[in-house]
Amino acid sequence: MTIHERRCLWYGVFRSQPIRVILVREPRRPGLALVTTDMHTPADQLVTRYAARWAIEVAFSDAKHITGVGEARNRTRLAMERTVPFGLQAQTLVVIWYHLAGHPPKVIAERRNRARWYTTKTHPSYRDMLIKLRRVLIAAQYRADQALQPTPEQIQTIRLAWADAAA
């Protein structure tokens, strides 16, 4: 990994406050530019901090753009305080269900067949998990051989998901 650093002023955004632009390059991967007002922390520590936070940023982005947390049209304070946590809990339940149901290898293969450009995809995205859940729910509604009541195994799976979410 190669790290380059430049101290400068970005007049349009930070006016007269100095910033650092840190450029990170790894072999066979696209480069990354980080901008910070922290003038003292070593560049490699800032890159490590950014990398540690990346999964959290992806989860928030998925919550806003896929789950719809950012599209709430609430007017009262109490409703707004409930909507975002509910959306994040729903997202958590999808991820827990997906991992308890054990779908990853099959879903990645299906996704690669539908989208040939995913040649390096190794893990399912949240969108893949949500698509799989929707397909399972729709298929369960239209199966004639299945009773309307959940099986004990299905109930146990849901209880495990709730217990994991509460922990």
Write the layout of secondary structure elements.
Blueprint: E1 2-9, H1 11-14, E2 18-25, E3 32-36, H2 43-67, H3 77-101, H4 104-114, H5 126-141, H6 152-166
Antiparallel strand pairs: 1-2, 2-3
Helix pairs in contact: 3-5, 3-6
Keyphrases for this structure?
single chain; 167 residues; alpha+beta
**Low confidence ranges:** none
**What's the count of strands?**
3
Topology as H/E string? EHEEHHHHH
Helix-strand makeup class = alpha+beta
Portion in helices: 55-70%
Counted by DSSP, the helix tally is 6
Question: Rg, please?
Answer: 22 Å
- Sheet of most strands: 3 strands, antiparallel
Mean pLDDT: 83
Q: Kindly, what is the distance between the CA atoms of the first and last residues, rounded to a whole number of angstroms?
A: 37 Å
Biggest sheet, spatial arrangement of strands: 1-2-3
Estimate the strand proportion: 5-15%
Molecular shape = extended
